[in-house]
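note to self: dont lose this again. the chain is below, predicted strucutre after it. 84 aa total, dont forget to put it in the shared folder this time
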Amino acid sequence: MHEQGSIKVLLPVRTQLPALRPTVICFELPIRELNPLREALARGPVTVNAFDRDGRQLLGYGTLIIIENAIDRGNVRLRAIFSH
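---
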């Protein structure tokens, strides 16, 4: 969690979001971010900001839609929807 109620996601390969609308992006956050994320969700929708892999170019804004139950190597999996 970077700003109150928002997540910054670095996309590893693409320089733009796919043209399909809406687009669902899967990503992971460290498990230590789970409680602040749940608190943010309790206040309302959580914005997900997708950036290129260098973290310089904003590719789009989305909304967090799913926190998966699985925890993998200390990370929690999430999904966000981007309507472009």
